């Protein structure tokens, strides 16, 4: 088959995949934002039908020959599309349908049991539900690995191109070097902001202003509101992010908007004409998270960002914000406080929670750890890494939904995001200038321009390790992240 | 094949159709309410992909044998599902793919040309675009009719079970009897309401209150806002309607909410357990319109409805509504004023516009009328029926989008809705009591209960003529509608 004809067939096949993915995203966005409770069952059924149609379209044998030809293309975008297509088709073909069904059922049951057992601290119920699920997830990893390492195969679902062997030394060094920092910084930062109330509609409006200010194109997307902030690509030209509102704390809505805004800028930065191909996306979750963390942590924690936002804050909250200055926000934000819950932890300690989970979930897959021993291993591990011990099961191994949903190999992507964000920030500061100075002098535009050129513009042409190496000049390393922590929190500590 | 096994296969096949239809409805609802402009192209592509998947699923030969067996079921719901399935499959099989493609393209072009040509009064551009479209629509009717009458086949797309031969005498008698009424009532009714402003959010909140008051279950649906009011079923338990807001006129949002609320109550009244079958829907557009028109015209134009709404109006609009009493609303609403635009015309003259269009579009399909002669025929026909003559092309044959979109056979369903609504109202008054008295004494619940039992509960088990015959004891007739007009507008005239 000729290359051009093969590409025509492949693009048509990928276009249908893109349409099905976009349609599913519309259904999910609607569900998270406005769907009435009565619609839940029908919506689940619609999503399952779209997933089944996607699965059979993905495996359509008619596309196979064309994809083989496209894989040999000299055009890196075409070759990348064929590579991603082959990976997705191989994965779908390797996992028996019966296993997929068992996993789906066990995952639904796991989440349901977890929702009920966590508030009650019912460890036995939780163990009962996740034991078969972990076994099925191991089977899944083995089926995907096709003779290779099952945990690597699971990581590969979320972070293609990265293996546990690449991760482990970085996580170990990170753990060893963050721990003394924690001891030094614990208690750094200032008191929380006054409890307001901080007007709810004003917070939503300010969040939308913040994302537009950093470069979000509101004609090609929108800012909504959900219980859990999220970013979704609903198709080319329709990127949506959401925030949440806590009337006692405006940092929650603003930082969520910055975080999701980072994801959304990535989505909007993918070249429009690639969007209907399999190369027109981010190469991994870690790559995506690097963008959200960049804006959240390397921009959103600087005094210059808050100085820039100050007029907006005073206008939005004329009462409560009138008496606050920039440092009040920065210090409240950069408060370091050891505590057992991952999602509530600060920037300094966050990754220790991830190191713990990565070690434990790998041991679950290798069989070195049994689910029945997980709660104790979790508490012991937290004590060793953070120096604190959970006082209740809901603060320990049961705290996250991931394992109860059969999601293993996902946790490391959070830390990869943090490390890549810091590597990108360091490269940017080296080449463009200190982020705070750039913000003060020119606003966020040069920061976005750097990310657009180094990351967004490349879609999935390279795997993440290669993309980041070219963008930053370095292999995966924790050094820039540690330097960022020292700088940010040392200066914050000195403010307090 | 055994009946039970056949039914299992059929329900699975229909469930996938329901999921695809529901998913498409979610995509459309989102598009009409919040989609950013940049998303339009991707959304069109997603909807086209879902339509293509629906088409190939509809024609799936694997379902054929099972549907044949189900057609012989003694269960009327099952037999009705099989009947609708066969009709849809026959239609899809009869129309060549090339014709479908040509129609889609000509329809898109027709709408685009119409949008531009109408404001400019460019009759020639409009004729140029719709001439080939009408020819294709005739081909479509001929393909569907399979030897029968092409216009009947087109009507059948929207109003199965009703033919032009059934319609014509009713429309003729309606035209003959409305005309003298128009002469008598022209100018009846009171002045418009004061221009306010009538607060926008208060109008939205009041519209939602109105639909909940008539029985809409807000846990199984929601009330939104669109440029053109609409009702959509997004799946079992998720029925959505929208209204619009004109800050100078609250009647616009309230009457649109009542109209769409009537459609939504019908959708919510379909037995939940039938929703994933092809019998779990209304049997026709005319049947659906009978429900919207019932609440809009037979409830929403009564003094008792406005008396019931009076406290809500005074609370929502404390300034402007304070000085108004019930009669002010009723008289402003029931104003009779001859004018050439269908969508702006009053209840008395509305159906004369439909009679005109039905006569003309049938002549276009039979070939008795050429598109080039349509503008003059339209103006002459309006003068004969209403006694007024359009003064510009945009007031004449070009005013509606339907013909420019290749939609022929649809107009009669509006008048069928009005006639069936009046037939139902008459039956209800005979059996339950005068609507005004019921509203004043018990509120809207007994009215909804009557419609639920007579109409909603039956889904698509019967075709519309049979459904309405059983519900009202009568064949299609204009008598109750004319009696309603005489009563409503005579009393309004006496108020003025």
Question: If you had to describe this structure to a student in words, what would you say it looks like?
Answer:
- 2 copies of one chain form a homodimer.
- Chain A has helices at residues 3-33, 40-58, 64-71, 76-94, 97-120, 123-145, 150-158, 164-185, 200-213, 250-269, 285-299, 303-316, 326-333, 350-366, 374-386, 411-431, 435-442, 445-454, 464-472, 479-495; strands at residues 221-225, 231-233, 239-243.
- Chain A is mainly α.
- Chain A folds into 2 domains: 3-94; 124-496, Neurolysin, domain 3.
- In chain A, strands 1-3-2 form a 3-stranded mixed beta sheet, with helices on both faces.
- The longest helix of chain A is centred in the first third of the chain and has 31 residues, at 3-33.
- The N and C termini of chain A lie far apart (68 Å).
- The A-B interface holds A 15-16, 18-20, 22-23, 26-27, 29-30, 34-43, 45-46, 48-50, 53, 217-222, 234-238, 275-276 and B 15-16, 18-20, 22-23, 26-27, 29-30, 34-43, 45-46, 48-50, 53, 217-222, 234-238, 275-276.
Report low-confidence residues of chain A grouped into runs of 5 or more.
none
Overall form of chain A? globular
Oligomeric category? homodimer
CATH topology type of the largest domain in chain A: Neurolysin, domain 3
Summarize the helix and strand pattern of chain A as letters: HHHHHHHHHEEEHHHHHHHHHHH
Mean pLDDT of chain A: 95
Count of DSSP strands of chain A: 3
Number of helices of chain A: 20
End-to-end distance of chain A = 68 Å
Which value, in Å, is the CA radius of gyration of chain A? 23 Å
Key traits:
homodimer, 496 residues, mainly alpha, Neurolysin, domain 3, 2 domains, 3-stranded mixed beta sheet, 20 helices
């Amino acid at each position: 088959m000729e290359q051009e004809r093969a590409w025509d067939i492949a693009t048509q096949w990928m276009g249908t995949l893109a349409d099905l993915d976009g349609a599913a995203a519309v259904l999910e966005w609607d569900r998270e934002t406005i769907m009435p409770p009565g619609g839940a069952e029908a919506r689940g059924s619609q999503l399952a039908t779209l997933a089944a149609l996607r699965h059979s379209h993905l495996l359509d044998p008619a596309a196979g020959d064309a994809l083989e030809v496209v894989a040999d293309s000299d055009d890196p975008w075409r070759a990348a599309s064929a590579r991603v297509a082959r990976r997705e088709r191989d994965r779908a073909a390797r996992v028996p349908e019966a296993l997929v069904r068992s996993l789906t059922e066990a995952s639904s049951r796991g989440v349901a049991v977890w929702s009920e057992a966590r508030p009650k601290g019912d460890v036995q119920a939780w163990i009962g539900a996740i034991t078969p699920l972990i076994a099925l997830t191991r089977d899944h990893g083995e089926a995907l690995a096709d003779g290779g390492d099952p945990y690597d195969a699971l990581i590969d679902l979320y972070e293609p191109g990265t293996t546990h062997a690449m991760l482990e030394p970085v996580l170990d060094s990170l753990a060893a070097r963050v721990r003394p920092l924690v001891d030094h910084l614990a208690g750094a930062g200032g008191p929380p902001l006054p409890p307001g109330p901080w007007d709810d509609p004003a917070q939503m409006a300010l969040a939308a202003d913040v994302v537009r200010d950093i470069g979000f194109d509101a004609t090609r997307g929108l800012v909504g509101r959900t219980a859990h902030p999220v970013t979704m690509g609903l198709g080319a030209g329709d990127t949506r992010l959401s925030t949440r509102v806590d009337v006692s704390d405006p940092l929650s809505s603003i930082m969520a908007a910055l975080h999701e805004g980072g994801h959304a800028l990535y989505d909007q930065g993918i070249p429009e004409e690639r969007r209907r191909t399999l190369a027109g996306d981010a190469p991994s979750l870690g790559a995506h998270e690097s963008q959200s963390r960049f804006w959240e942590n390397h921009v959103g924690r600087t005094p210059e960002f808050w100085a820039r936002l100050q007029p907006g804050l005073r206008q939005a909250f004329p009462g409560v914000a009138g008496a606050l200055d920039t440092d009040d926000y920065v210090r409240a934000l950069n408060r370091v406080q050891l505590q057992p819950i991952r999602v509530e932890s600060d920037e300094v300690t966050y990754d220790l929670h991830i190191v713990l989970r990565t070690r434990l979930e790998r041991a679950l897959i290798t069989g070195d750890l049994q689910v029945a021993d997980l709660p104790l291993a979790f508490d012991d591990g937290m004590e060793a890494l953070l120096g604190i011990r959970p006082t209740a099961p809901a603060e320990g191994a049961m705290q996250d939904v991931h394992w109860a949903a059969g999601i293993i190999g996902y946790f490391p992507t959070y830390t990869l995001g943090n490390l890549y964000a810091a590597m990108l920030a360091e490269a940017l500061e080296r080449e463009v200038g200190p982020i705070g100075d750039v913000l003060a002098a020119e606003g966020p535009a040069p920061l976005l321009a750097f990310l657009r050129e180094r990351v967004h513009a490349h879609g999935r042409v390279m795997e993440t390790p290669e993309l980041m190496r070219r963008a930053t000049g370095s292999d995966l390393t924790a050094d820039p992240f540690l330097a960022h922590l020292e700088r940010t929190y040392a200066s914050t500590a000195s403010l307090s």
